[in-house]
Q: What sequence folds into this?
């Protein structure tokens, strides 16, 4: 179905269920869908699994969601940062579960989910603690590790601009996880800075085609 | 026994920069490796890759140049050079994992005599692990250069027979740049390339790793 344009962030995040796997775009604060996360906090879903590159910065966005105690598990590549005190406190208190994933595996596992790939072998992580317990195979003389897709129930994505079809363009390095997450979730919810009329985005410049996008809100 | 004064971080970075071929695609890790950018010769044509999704990254942004949408892997504001391109995370890591990146420069806690790398986790019980792109870089780049001091603060060597910290990658390090010597990790063993404020014989006495002369 083509994308729905929502009037408010609250409308955009309606229906996210307890226990959902939520993909959250962004690399640090660049590309983080702060307004959608704030709306999710107000919406109240709990027992969430959050998949994101980091585990929150400062006290806003993802960090604010973690601070509510409604996130059971974080799947990410780089939780520990100078300003990740919210996650650090929860983790040290044993109040949040962490699945640490090499960043390229995180991206490729999301991509695989969006592309219908059931699993893939990669040399990344072979022989390290992050491959323990995983199936391995020798391919081309190198040890490869079997990695499974990461599919979200919901993706919360920040993009720069959308048209009414849900086609998206991003801006500079804020693109990061947006395109792979948009394709990897059952329901993809996007906040943009600007909504333009259909036909006003150069088709050659569209990064995420609207087929991956379910809801759009200007925030 | 202490070694003589070795190289500064800037001097180590200059050594790494000297060994990067003109026109290379290069990823510089967070922290000390970032300094290498300051020593690349103007006109060298080296293209910097930042794993959050950009090629031909420019220097740090200042003043009006600062743009929250344009950051490096350390989440610091940077600039773009003419010919820059942006791409998403799966493409960014395909560049590493697919063997398209010529060189990556990483920091390390330990490097083993066979080129194993440990740089993401101390294994301490209260430490919060974080890996980021280190495993993908170590495994995927054509050449992996490591910059570190040769000895820890307690004097223990960081070039070791076997890493005691959790591994980032197995047999992946090609060259090691330290404050007192540079090494090449070859199938035949660890070759001492250059020494600074020390000698080959002194290193043989301090390290528990067989060393070859160049």
A:
């Amino acid at each position: 179905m083509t994308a729905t344009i929502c009037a408010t962030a609250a409308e955009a995040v309606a229906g996210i269920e307890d226990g959902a796997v939520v993909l959250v775009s962004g690399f640090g604060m660049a590309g983080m869908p702060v307004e959608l996360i704030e709306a999710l906090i107000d919406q109240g879903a709990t027992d969430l699994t959050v998949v994101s590159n980091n585990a929150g910065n400062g006290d806003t966005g993802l960090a604010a969601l973690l601070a509510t105690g409604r996130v059971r598990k974080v799947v990410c590549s780089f939780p520990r940062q100078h300003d990740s005190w919210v996650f650090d406190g929860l983790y040290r208190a044993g109040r949040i579960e962490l699945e640490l994933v090499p960043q390229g595996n995180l991206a490729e596992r999301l991509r695989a989910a969006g592309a219908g790939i059931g699993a893939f072998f990669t040399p990344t992580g072979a022989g390290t603690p992050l491959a323990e317990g995983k199936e391995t195979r020798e391919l081309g003389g190198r040890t490869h590790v079997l990695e499974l897709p990461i599919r979200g129930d919901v993706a919360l994505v920040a993009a720069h601009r959308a048209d009414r079809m849900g086609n998206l363009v991003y801006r500079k390095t804020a693109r990061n996880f947006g395109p792979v997450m948009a394709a990897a979730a059952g329901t993809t919810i996007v906040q943009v800075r600007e909504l333009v009329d259909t036909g006003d985005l150069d088709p050659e410049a569209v990064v995420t085609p609207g087929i991956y996008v379910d809801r759009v809100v200007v925030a | 026994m202490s070694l003589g004064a070795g190289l500064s971080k800037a001097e180590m970075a200059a050594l790494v920069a000297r060994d990067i071929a003109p026109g290379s695609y290069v990823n510089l890790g967070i922290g000390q490796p970032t300094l290498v950018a300051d020593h690349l010769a103007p006109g060298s044509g080296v293209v910097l890759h930042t794993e959050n999704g950009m090629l031909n990254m420019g220097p740090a942004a200042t003043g009006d140049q600062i743009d929250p949408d344009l950051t490096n892997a350390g989440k610091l504001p940077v600039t773009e050079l003419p010919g820059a391109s942006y791409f998403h995370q799966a493409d960014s890591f395909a560049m590493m994992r697919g063997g398209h990146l010529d060189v990556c420069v990483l920091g390390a806690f330990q490097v083993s005599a066979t080129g194993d790398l440990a740089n993401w986790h101390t294994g301490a019980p209260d430490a919060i692990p974080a890996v980021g792109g280190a495993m993908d870089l170590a495994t995927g780049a054509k050449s992996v250069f490591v910059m570190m001091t040769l000895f820890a603060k307690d004097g223990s060597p960081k070039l070791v027979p076997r890493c005691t910290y959790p591994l980032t990658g197995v047999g992946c390090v090609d060259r090691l740049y330290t404050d007192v010597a540079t090494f090449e990790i070859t199938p035949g063993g660890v070759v001492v390339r250059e020494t600074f404020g020390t000698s080959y014989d002194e290193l043989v006495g301090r390290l528990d790793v067989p060393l070859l002369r160049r």
About this structure: Chain B has one domain: 9-213. The domain at 9-213 of chain B is CATH 3.40.1080.10 (Glutaconate Coenzyme A-transferase). The CA atoms of residues 190 and 211 of chain B lie 5 Å apart.
